[in-house]
Specification:
Length: about 180
């Protein structure tokens, strides 16, 4: 009888440790997310399942997940960091006066029959100031014509960022690292 109690206690301890580790990993290190909508197409598709890395701070062109003002989590690409001047002109991104290539938009630009993928704008047009405020970032979806992003919801406080994401793990046919 004592041997059975001891074995049951060992199994219980192992199970408790496994559950505790799963909770720590899930809530403090990595979290799953499901892409909802088409705002990041063609890079991400509705229903893609990804892993969010809760470490580090957002960097330019990272794909991040954040708590949006609508009490919902959004997934977008970081375009502007604190202090940056952002401008789009003739479908070219300028950050602090320097032109940047956005290869993740090449596929979408090829599909545009008329006009540009991203309309011309400056930060002042959307947030009423020339630079991204300290402690905040400017984000955009890759589907520039169909994304609710900083152009409509404003800049995002860095403290609202959950983490960045690079790995699609489902569906199996789409497993890959995204850039």
């Amino acid at each position: 009888m004592s041997k059975q109690k001891n074995e049951l206690w060992e199994w219980t301890k192992a199970l408790l440790i496994a559950v505790l580790l799963a909770v720590i990993i899930r809530y403090f290190l990595f979290a799953p997310i499901v892409v909802d909508g088409s705002s990041m197409m063609p890079t991400l598709h509705n229903g893609d399942r990804m892993i969010v890395n809760r470490f580090g701070k957002p960097d330019r062109f990272d794909i991040i997940v954040f708590h949006a003002p609508e009490k919902k989590d959004y997934i977008k690409r970081v375009i502007g960091l604190p202090g940056d001047r952002i401008e789009y002109k003739d479908d070219i991104l300028y950050i602090n006066g320097k032109a940047y290539k956005e290869p993740y938009l090449d596929e979408a630009k090829k599909e545009i029959a008329v006009g540009t993928l991203t309309e011309d704008f400056t930060l002042r047009d959307y947030i009423g100031r020339d630079t991204v405020p300290e402690g905040e970032i400017f984000v955009m979806g890759d589907n520039r014509r169909g994304s609710k992003d900083s152009r409509s919801i404003g800049t995002i406080p860095i403290k609202k960022v959950i983490g960045d994401t690079k790995l699609i793990w489902w569906p199996i046919s789409d497993i890959r690292i995204v850039k």
